């Protein structure tokens, strides 16, 4: 159950095989494209076994949701919302910066939000109010005016409360590939969005990948992962607790310990078995532990290389010199430093985002942040002096590239008498 | 030729129809996937009519390229390279920031470069040394270690000089969809890349879109565009010169003037006809002008709304209060402010990037910048005190979401006696 891992094999196994669902998803996408809302009602009846009366959640339903939720939970959600907002506000760039790089040549960047985005919040059997916050609050902080949420029915009251706390009121009870198709293509009820963010199952992910010509996505994401980078200073109780927390997400979750201490895997293994005895989601955890294991590295550098190969969704650093490790690693969705920084803090409370790339995609993609909801325009502003200073470069290169009207557009400026 | 435009129709027409080439591109991708290098040699013979001896450009070929290029041109390229580097260096973020958001809770972001990226540089009949700089220099500034360039044969000496000036030595003489397939999937000679950037024809764009499961891309891009936002203060000579410069790129280029001055379109039209008389790429320009025209807006606000609808690749601001216009517009690839800021300066000399989203994609995507070559990891570091402060939120929300091991991972930390 808790065994030595081969990193290459791990990498191979983590990429979700979307091929198996691609045909089914293509059929769903086509149905939504052809029949719009009608297809959404039919597919929801088929897959969620619910006959919807309305796609959109009505304003009074948000109100009513509070009555079904414990007050302490509303407070916890409100705290989480405030912390997520706080962290994402720290990511803001100046909306416009300009700098005179040489006399008469002012360059800069203007940052603007997307107009309309879609957030997918998983649901169905479970409630994910935290994901409702993680997908919508960064969009708000970025300045996005229209945020459209889809979540499979029945939508849990906690999720509605979370959306209401965030100040999001456009929410449709549709899940799966049909929700992605509706947001990407638009229907009678749902206006199309520019970008779709948020986690989902293989159907959701396959639909997101398939519809990127219509709506951009955050990144492909699959089952959750933790990588623990540890030495002799690590506490096996904490390491085991974080492993179990990751494993309880999903039978396909993956946990890997990379350590320079050859005695640590056995100590963590024993602690995993002990904590497993009282775990409530024991079957899921045991299934996930089959995808999990450890790597013993000869030294710190080798451990870092192995962890960078893995590029885990969550990286827990449990070593004597954590700042050195933080500086050394390159690839991870989110990094948790030191014994008290349980990964669960990032999932719920610290304000960092839990929508993160998995399966090694952290090598290429950033976790969800406000930059996913912004785009930039470069800006240039030349005076006559600046145009004169840069004129020769343009005239000479444009002529070499055979673009004579380019050269002429600069020549005309230079010839103009003041 | 120079006529009133309907903005909705313009938007409709700008999106390139990739459907027509999709089958051909899928065949090319499959061939490269199956036969690797062999397919590259065969496809280059078929499409470029060149029998390659080697895919890779040898080190001595870069050296030799200087002998075939005018010295003044090398200087202009070196100046352009330095200016592009200067502007992109201004975009750098701190590689790690950490902030204590409350006692014991330190949050931050670590920024790291991608490991290996691909740059597509168009070529064939023409030389695009400027695009060689625009695609590779930002990657270098971001810290990318491996930059792989593909360009169709024969590669012009100017392009090789540009790559050498930038310090890029991995270059393959392959073009079209087969180049994108080779970089996304890898062959015996070419290692796969994480992301492919750079402009290309519809085959290149279709291949980039098709292979996004394997390699991320910058954004879809099509024929070049200019939008000029102008009032009575605009100089028709300069406006016409910038329109012609854009139009000479491609028969499918598009130029639109949005103005509050109803007399300006005719004055610009007359100036276009005058400048066209001596234009060297007259046929291309005349074809592009058929896709072009003007919009007369009732007032400034209406003009800004129309221009935001268009979201042009290049936006030229030619109004009496340019800073107000710069602040008001939302969507443009790159913004050129004032009479002396010819768009051609951004194409070659000022240092801003000319690889930009077209066809309204500026609503969703940023032009190429160093952030395309970076990704981030969020960081969190909690002390015992910080864990205590955030503990209740996690325990309460994790329990509500049914994730008991998450709650336990925090509870164990809080219970630990110092």
Automatic annotation (TrEMBL), chains A, B:
Species: Methanofollis formosanus
Comment on bound cofactor: Binds 1 zinc ion per subunit.
- Residues recorded as binding Zn(2+), renumbered to this chain, are 246, 249, 347, 406
A Pfam family annotated for this UniProt entry: Histidinol_dh
Q: Name one GO biological process term.
A: L-histidine biosynthetic process
What is the active site of this protein? 313-314
- Pathway assigned to this chain's UniProt record: Amino-acid biosynthesis; L-histidine biosynthesis; L-histidine from 5-phospho-alpha-D-ribose 1-diphosphate: step 9/9
**KW Zinc (keyword) present:** yes
Cofactor dependence is on: Zn(2+)
> To which protein family does this belong?
Belongs to the histidinol dehydrogenase family.
Its name, as the record gives it, is: Histidinol dehydrogenase
Return the InterPro entries for the record: Ald_DH/histidinol_DH, Histidinol_DH_CS, Histidinol_DH_monofunct, Hstdl_DH
């Amino acid at each position: 159950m808790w065994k030595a891992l081969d990193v290459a094999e791990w990498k191979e196994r983590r990429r979700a095989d979307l091929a198996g669902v691609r045909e089914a998803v293509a059929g769903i996408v086509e149905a939504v494209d052809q029949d719009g809302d009608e297809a959404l009602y039919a597919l929801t009846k088929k897959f969620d076994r619910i006959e919807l009366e309305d796609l959109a959640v009505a304003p009074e339903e948000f109100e009513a949701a509070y009555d079904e939720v414990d007050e302490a939970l509303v407070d916890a959600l409100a705290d989480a919302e405030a912390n997520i907002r706080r962290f994402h506000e720290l990511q803001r760039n100046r909306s416009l910066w300009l700098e005179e790089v040489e006399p008469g040549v002012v360059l800069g960047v203007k940052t603007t939000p997307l107009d309309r985005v879609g957030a997918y919040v998983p649901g169905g059997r479970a409630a994910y109010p935290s994901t409702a916050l993680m997908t919508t609050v960064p969009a708000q902080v970025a300045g996005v005016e229209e945020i459209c949420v889809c979540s499979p029915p029945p939508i849990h009251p906690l999720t509605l409360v979370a959306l209401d706390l965030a100040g999001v009121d456009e929410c449709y009870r549709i899940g799966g590939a049909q929700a992605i198709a509706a947001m990407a293509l638009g229907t009678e009820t749902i206006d199309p969005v520019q970008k779709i963010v948020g986690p989902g199952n293989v159907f959701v992910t396959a639909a997101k990948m398939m519809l990127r010509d219509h709506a951009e996505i955050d990144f492909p994401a699959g089952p959750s992962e933790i990588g623990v980078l540890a030495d002799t200073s690590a506490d096996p109780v904490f390491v085991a607790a974080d492993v179990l927390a990751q494993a309880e997400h999903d039978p396909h979750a993956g946990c890997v310990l990379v350590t320079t201490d050859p005695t640590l895997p056995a100590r963590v293994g024993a602690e995993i078995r002990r904590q497993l005895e009282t775990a409530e989601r024991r079957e899921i955890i045991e299934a996930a532990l089959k995808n999990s294991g450890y790597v013993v590295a000869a030294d710190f550098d080798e451990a870092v290389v192995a962890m960078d190969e893995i590029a885990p969704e969550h990286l827990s650093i449990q070593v004597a010199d954590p700042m050195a490790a933080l500086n050394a690693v390159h690839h991870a969705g989110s990094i948790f430093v030191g014994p008290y920084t349980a990964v669960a803090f990032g999932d719920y409370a610290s304000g960092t985002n839990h929508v993160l790339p998995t399966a090694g995609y952290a090598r290429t993609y950033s976790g969800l942040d406000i930059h996913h909801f912004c785009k930039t325009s470069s800006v240039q502003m030349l005076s006559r002096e600046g145009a004169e200073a840069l004129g020769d470069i343009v005239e000479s290169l444009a002529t070499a590239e055979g673009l004579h009207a380019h050269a002429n557009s600069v020549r005309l400026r230079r010839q103009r008498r003041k």
